[in-house]
Amino acid sequence: MLWLSNAAVLFFPLVFLSGCTTVSLNAGFPEVGALVEERSGLQVFWHNGTDLDKQAAEKLGWLLENKLTVDDAAQIALLNNRELQAIYSDLGVAQADLVQAGLLSNPIFDASIKWPIPGGGRPDLELAAVMNFLDIFYLPLRRRVATARFEEAKTRIGGLVLDFAVRVRTAFYVHQANEQMLELRRTIVQTLTGSFDVARRLHEAGNITDLDFARERALLEGGKLALRSVEVAVRRSREDLNILMGLWGKQTAWQTDQRLPEIPQQPIQTEDIERVALSRSVDLLHARQRLVSAGEQLGLNKATALIAESHLGALGERTEGAWEVGPVLEFPIPLFDQGQARTGRAAAELRRAQQEYYALAIRVRATARAIRDRMEGARDRALYYRDIMLPLQERIVHETQLHYNAMQLGPIQLLRAREQQIETAVAYIETLRDYWLARGDAGQIMNGRLPASVGIASAQTGGSRKMADQAGH
User: Fold this and answer.
1) What predicted TM-score, i.e. pTM, was given to this entire model?
2) Distance (Å, rounded) from C-alpha 144 to C-alpha 472?
3) pLDDT tens digits, residue range 201-257?
4) Which one of 52, 220, 299, 438 is at 20 to 30 Å from 405 when CA atoms are compared?
5) 428, 175 Cβ separation under 8 angstroms
6) Are strands 311-319 and 108-114 parallel, antiparallel or unpaired?
7) Distance between alpha carbon 25 and the CA centroid of its chain, in Å?
8) What burial letters (b/e) apply to 310-321, b meaning 16+ CB within 10 Å?
């Protein structure tokens, strides 16, 4: 029959093309890697059981041989963190969805056999094979939706990797500050111990009161408590870095310079930070891709609103030894469900994505300005401590030493001046740490990603995942 011949000409090439389609779980990863390297200067790696795994292990060992810098820590984490490796699998999921969207629905085969009753006799056979022929027309629309979601997944994962790198840098600066603070707290305890020994001898000689002696001991015990707290903080921040870098066993014996870098002479140019943050924003790129995904989903829902599927095939029936063959057409009658709910939901998702995009642009602008002010404020405070407060405390200690040599002041006053000098150094370290954390946030937003500290990146990621899940239903 002519119509069967024409159907076969169309059907078998489609079957061949669909059967040759494969899923590449690494699809999209080169684009993610290029995005991360261009924005952060770091290389990403996906463990996939090839010879490249050995190269990554060799690079990891080489980095751990020397004292770690903040860039080394971030690179180790991108090479070795298994939670990050698990995130890359989302690319394989999105690629699989893209391949699935390009596949035709499997044909349906139906068979029945009927025996005449009463009397028996030759049974009647009925064979039918049908497939959803509308898939052929809806296939490009489905592929456009899946392609948009695949692009969305790439921008989302690229943003998560950038967030992760900044998270490692932040943890590294915190650990360096803790190590530097530990050194100072030990010095404070040593100073307070000397002061307490002097106070004890003076108290035994009856030269100071019981109240003054109790105060000296309270200061010493408080210094010991502060030292213990810093010791715990150093161990905790070290373990935080071990988790982020994916290290265990002998690998955890890494070392750092134990001191925060000084304030650079040349500050970051932040005059155009708002414009740069907008033009390079991965968050906005991801939001735009969500807009595209929502628009494509709305187009698909409108196209399939009345008749989502329709089956066409052939029916063969044997009665009394003779075969009768003819076409079969099945389609739903849109009496109750005319697709208005699916279309309305897709339209609402599109409107939500539009409003989220505009709100995100405003937030990027405001966050860029706030980070600039915070970084500049921390820089000014750190420089004030370094250039004014620390030299002033040093001068006070020097003058107190001269008065002590002239027997115009006692040893307790000299020790107290030295203690205040150290406490000023503690405040400088804390301010220096705040500067480097703010500088990290500034670098992050200028690289196109909202800092996690403002609570936006994670919220947008969760929102996009939720939206993608809802759109698939």
Assistant:
1) 0.77
2) 14
3) 888 888 878 887 888 888 889 889 999 999 999 999 999 999 999 898 888 889 988
4) 220
5) no
6) unpaired
7) 20
8) bbbbbeebbeee
